Fold this sequence. Notes:
The protein is 53% helix and 16% strand. The protein is built from 4 helices and 4 strands. A 4-stranded antiparallel sheet has the order 1-2-3-4.
Amino acid sequence: MNIKADLSILDIVGHLLIWVVLSVITFGIALFFFPYSFARFVINRTSVVDPSSGVERKMVCDINLFSNIGHIILWMLISLITFGLGYLFYFYRVWNYALNNARVV
């Protein structure tokens, strides 16, 4: 099995611009929601390709931004207590969560 990501530069720039504006408007609070959106953005544009038959199957991430408010609040507190160092771990944990909630269709 091979993994193929279909991310265009225009999609990436648009996604980043939206999150930069949201981060400025919310004084950085949106940055705690960004890792969920980023993981979902990449996973939903990825497919798994069977090299022998050439069949391509899409990946779908079943998380949404607001279903994990408790998780986000916990990591906000950890990040504040650790002066931002906890955010680095948070980003990896979100990817772990997103990949565990992704499926191939």
